[in-house]
Amino acid sequence: TCEAEAEAGSGAGAEAAHFVLVPLMAQGHMIPMVDMARLLAERGVRVTLITTPVNAARIRPIIDQVSRSNLPVEFVELRFPCAELGLPEGSENVDLLSSPAYYKPFFDAMKLLKEPLEALLRSQHRRPDCMIADMCNGWTKDVARRLGIQRLVFHGPSCFYILCAYNMVQHRVYDRATDELEPIVVPDVPVEVVTNKAESPGFFNWAGWEDLRDEVVEAESTADGVVINTFYDLEPSFVDCYEKIMQKKVWTVGPLCLYSKDVDSKAARGNKAAVDHRDVTTWLDSKGASSVFYVSFGSLVCTRPMQLIEIGKGLLECADHRPFIWVVKEAEIVPEVEKWLLEEHFAERTKERGLLIKGWAPQTVILSHPAIGGFLTHCGWNSTLEAISAGVPMLTWPHFADQFLNEKLVVDVLKIGRSLDVKVPSTHVTDDSTLLVTKEKLRKAVSELMEGEEGEEMRRRAKALAEKAKKAMEEGGSSYRNMDDMIEYMAGRYGKEEKVEDAVRASPMVLAPML
Ligand code: UDP
């Protein structure tokens, strides 16, 4: 029946295309893949999404919703091999790792999914037409090759970052830079980008991770194409440049967060929220348009106690009694922080104007509410795209990975954010008393973003981009068309009978027999 639905969806008589999606088990990677699975299914593709028991339990409401609506998405739970790699039981997602020492074993555990994945795909009555694997899952290339399945790489970050990162590796800038802080001009990008090794260390470019790094680079270069969670109008020159350099198909299919339109599905993304999203909405409803400042650093950043308290002080002391929502992770609420919150009577003092969310927040519900006027973000690409999709300007405080380059895109290229000028990756901070951002700096930046003329300009530009983002995802928009094109290309049908000759002429390989 699922297949019948899928065929009905594609309007075709042929058997539905079947895609297998292999995400990295990290929130910033899984959340957009789950959105993509549902989008593909709505376009008539039968989807198998690989997950694990703990990850599936976190998004049970989404799985139930998918099954109620008869969308042809099958969530397959593979056992995650924690014990084999010495990981504590249940460490099935990067945000569940209790120590950085578990990072490498976690990625090694991901690699052990190779055999069960191959066995699963062999057991199915028909091999999938396409595998879309997270770029971190380079190991999937062997599975796809052995089974004769075409494979696309899914990139979570901005195309701007991917292009910069790719060029830095190709031009061997890391070999030349002797000092971590030596300025690096990123080669071959359409704008001037200056970074350094500390900010942009390169993907998996650390001692002891060489095997993973090389595997990822190879998997990207041997892939049949690339899928990116961005939209063309956001970064056209970088998309064009990347496609030219890669000499393979690049499909921009985002912002994937716009898949969820109703508040219930927005609230169910990623994990069970620590608050009832209806209460948050009621609270936001009582605030003026663009008046509330939202603070959240994604799923992985863990802020040290003194820095966390400093942020709290900055929010408390905002001269204009600015309303705010502040998301703090459970792991960050150590006794020192708890004590400060109590001694400062934080809850009572901010009763009317503040909402402190301890744990997982329903982020897209919050960001898309008209009362939100600014967002202090770590520049994780999902958070950034979610802000862009909601037309919310940003205060930027990158911490690691792609975040410093995403910041440059937001602040220097798109001009929809103001930088807090943090130049040190949080991973380089070893001393608890180091404050990368003081309360004074935060206060000043918040008031400039929320009230200043420049902030207003940024908000205007952000809202214009939000319109473009929506258009991209609507029928006929660039991401919508790209998704269709990707499906047809990978299913080897290119518009089926009527266009089949064109497809043969354009790309004979696509019609090679599928196993
Ligand atoms: N997120 C959320 N609630 C939280 C924290 C994070 O819904 O309390 C979501 C957020 O909306 C985004 C993802 O988790 O979709 C985080 O991805 P991002 O790329 O922004 O950062 P990362 O967590 O990978 O650093």
From TrEMBL:
An MF annotation (GO) of this entry:
UDP-glucosyltransferase activity
* Coiled-coil region(s): none
InterPro entries referenced in this protein's UniProt entry, alphabetically: Glyco_transf_N (IPR058980), UDP_glucos_trans (IPR002213), UDP_glycos_trans_CS (IPR035595)
Keyword Transferase present in the record's keywords: the answer is yes
Q: Which residues form the Glycosyltransferase N-terminal domain?
A: 19-256
Specify whether Transferase is a keyword of the entry. yes
- Source taxon at top rank: Eukaryota
Q: Which family does it belong to?
A: Belongs to the UDP-glycosyltransferase family.
Protein name (database record): Glycosyltransferase
Organism per entry:
Ananas comosus
